[in-house]
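Lab notes, practical 5.
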Amino acid sequence: MSNVEIVIDADFIVSQVDRRLFGSFVEHLGRCVYTGIFEPGHPTADARGFRRDVLELVRELGPTIIRYPGGNFMSGYRWEDGVGPVSERPRQLDLAWFTTEPNTFGTNEFIDWCKLAGTEPMLGVNLGTRGPDEARAYLEYCNHPGGTALSDLRATHGYKDPHAVKFWCLGNEMDGPWQIGQKTATEYGRIAKSTATLMKWVDPTIEVSACGSSEPFMPTFGEWEYEVLNHAYEVADFVSLHMYYKNPYKDVQEFLASADIMDRYIQDTLAVCDAVRAKHRAAKRIMLSFDEWNVWYKAREPRDRALPGWPEAPRLLEEIYDLQDALMVGGALITLLNHADRVKSACLAQLVNVIGPIFTEPGGAAWRQTIFHPFKLVAQNARGTVLRTKIQSTQVETRTAGLIDHVIATAVHDADRKTVVLFMLNRETSKPLEVSVALRGFPALTRGNGLQIFGDDLLATNTLKTPNAVQPAPYEDFTVKGDAVLASLRPLSWAMLTLSY
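Output from the prediction step:
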């Protein structure tokens, strides 16, 4: 007898998967850029200083869009200081992270790096110390074909063809007291509207994301989104969400309940967006860009962020991820896919060293952290349409999320490849669960490959000495008969099953 029953129908579709759902984030913070993706003189560095070992891992990971240059860094950034001859770029104090910024890596380097990595750039504009006209100028420099001072300046820098960046962020976490140029919702709503209007006059093809509240536990959450959209609904395409998941009780079941907290956060934000839509009698719907999400609770930033001596590229926020973190990231990806109708972009923050799936040593090796693996598997295999999943599961009561199902799941149908891929997370801590899946509306299914992430040591990590301590293992414990799948899920495991027809 099954502990969990899942029903899926080919005709009950959530949405096409937007490929931008599998994004990441590169900020001028710690060692994400310098000695992360960019390290001239490294044994693997190319002529531009890009680490080829990191590029290979990024291509394997498969992020589809990458946000840049921040983050908090964005709110004090002057984009023009990071373009042109490197020898003429100023060294500056970065007040977001109290470090020295050399500006040897900037917009054009980032665009070139994205091309090599096979990913799309997402750029942010500074609405902390700057405003609409500077944002308009940045867009004109990047996207205008030519014949103006800024587009011709780009050409003199070696880029005659426009960069054609399509996704732009209107500032970052502007309600946060830690943010350079913090604003009220009214102040930000007005500047976001003015900025987006100017930018879309320059390039009507772009999409823009307005800042949501910095996280759902902010006192401004809800009211902030409502007021901002009340001003900017006509010109905004997305609202951003940010959330980092923690393990305050050192309890894996409570920790994995964060996937349900993420689900509610998405639903609550959509409720506010749609309330403004109703008020404005608007035809369009605002979509969500979950452009900062990850597990982050070990390598917290110092209470006093001012580091002595204004160092350049210090070790900051270098979270070392373990097995339970990988399970949580796998659960979060399931949640994002189940909201594919409204969450159209998301960025695992960040990419390298700074709470990232890839870790490097200066002058040395690069390797995959534990969270690399579920992200890679979903980015590679979640293609097509997400199908609705109806789940009846055993449950458990949690302090953080109330009553939760032991098993969460999502299904993605690729009609071109004639596959259905199931992603499942078992949050039962002590015993395997038997899962039956009915896939209605499909021809007879055949079994494909299966992979799972599990282990006896929830605190196992991937390190320089043990880079493969946590990695996917073959998953064989499932059978397929007609349109039915029977699977046995190990306790505290994440699994991917591929079916063909």
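Observations recorded by the TA: The longest helix spans residues 258-280. The chain has a mean pLDDT of 97.
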